[in-house]
Amino acid sequence: MNRKLRMGMIGGGPGSFIGAVHRMAAALDGQIELVCGAFSSKPEKSKQAGASLYLDTSRVYDSYIEMFEKEKALPDHQRMDFVSIVTPNHLHFEPAILALQNGFHVVLDKPATFNLTEAKQLADIVAATGKFLCLTHTYTGYPMIKEARQQIRSGKFGLIRKVYVEYPQGWLSTFLERENQKQASWRTDPAKSGIAGAMGDIGTHAFNLAEYVTGLQVVKICADVNSIVPGRRLDDDGAALLNFNNGSSGVLMATQVAAGEENNIKIRVYAEKGGIEWKQEDANTLLVKWMGKPLEIWRAGSAYLSEVAKKHCRIPAGHPEGYLEAFANLYRNFALCVQAGLNNERPDFDTYDFPGIDEGVRGMLFIEKIIESSRSNKKWIDFSL
């Protein structure tokens, strides 16, 4: 195949933060072009978005149902290859199912669906259609997260003993949804967000990062989840004790009421001989710690990194790469896998990986289990489907 992949989008119209992020990330490596979209449930807003993106007016649709019908009818050399779904949680499942059933690959914002039942049904459809689905857990795209994962997988630290992962934000420290702020309004609405607020929005990121970096899976959870701001209908703060499938333990914290905090997701992993530490606000640095040895500071873009990490760096050391580049790594890896499939080749998923529907199901299981645990008097809740 000697062309860019053609992308459609559902959601991401006027007032959307994440839609613009997806478009920038998809465009960064020159592998993908946006060709169509249904950018809003309101046709006039969808047309406004399409005009601002200089799209052919015939390919700016009033609904995603219309988009799938008309794109499927186009000849192979024109129709979109995949769709990015960047809507609130309650509008993930149906468009993802329709996309897959109509022959389109999917990029899906997290969490995967509104509830665990939908996630499991979506997994069945992905398996049945053989299409790729990328779930945008952005932090897995950082080069130094790739490096941390490679170092832990090498076994050089020994058996993992302790995992700490946290995601503190402060933007919901006030009753912001009362001011009709769009991002706050849907995230704190159970009809749109689901049974969890902060734990669904950012707790899932922390959970995914812990399992991705360590290669372990949570098997038990003990949680305390709360709504701190008076009048808020969903949680905005919480923490959980975790047990992993190798016998180790961990702590997860996620809050959106840590006034003054921005987006400093952070992970520390400790094993028999040493461990690692990474935080997003210094994303180009990985700290490596050893018993009886000096602290090591590993930097993005350096020649001494693993081959996997180097393939996720774009520029030499000292030139900061950040959130958009990490997001773009997911799109780049997804595009390489789709292109390999179109060329009847086997994707190099060991190098160019991205989160998929399995991570999506695990994330929805996390949401259900952390809320169940918080509401229960039992000390430990089994973390199983």
What can you see in these coordinates?
This protein has 385 residues and is an alpha/beta fold. The protein has two domains: 5-139 and 329-356, Rossmann fold (3-Layer(aba) Sandwich); 142-317 and 362-382, 2-Layer Sandwich (Dihydrodipicolinate Reductase, domain 2). The chain contains twelve helices and 14 strands. It has helices spanning 17-27, 43-52, 64-73, 93-101, 116-129, 143-153, 182-187, 190-193, 198-214, 307-310, 323-342, 357-375, and strands spanning 5-10, 32-38, 82-85, 105-108, 133-135, 160-168, 218-226, 237-244, 249-255, 266-271, 274-279, 285-290, 296-299, 381-382. It has a nine-stranded mixed beta sheet. Strands 2-1-3-4-5 form a five-stranded parallel beta sheet, sandwiched between helices. Strand 10 and strand 11 (274-279) form a beta hairpin. The longest helix has 20 residues, at 323-342. The model has no long low-confidence stretch (mean pLDDT 97).
| Principal-axis shape | globular
Calculate the terminal CA-CA distance, rounded to whole Å.
40 Å
**Helicity, in percent?**
25-40%
User: How many domains is the backbone divided into?
Assistant: 2
The topology string of helices and strands comes to EHEHHEHEHEHEHHHEEEEEEEHHHE
Number of helical segments? 12
What fraction of residues sit in β-strands? 15-25%
pLDDT under 50 segments (min length 5)? Answer: none
**How are the strands of the largest sheet arranged?**
13-12-11-10-6-9-8-7-14
Q: Could you name the CATH class of the largest domain?
A: Alpha Beta
If you consult CATH, what is the topology of the largest domain? Dihydrodipicolinate Reductase, domain 2
The CATH superfamily of the largest domain appears as Dihydrodipicolinate Reductase, domain 2
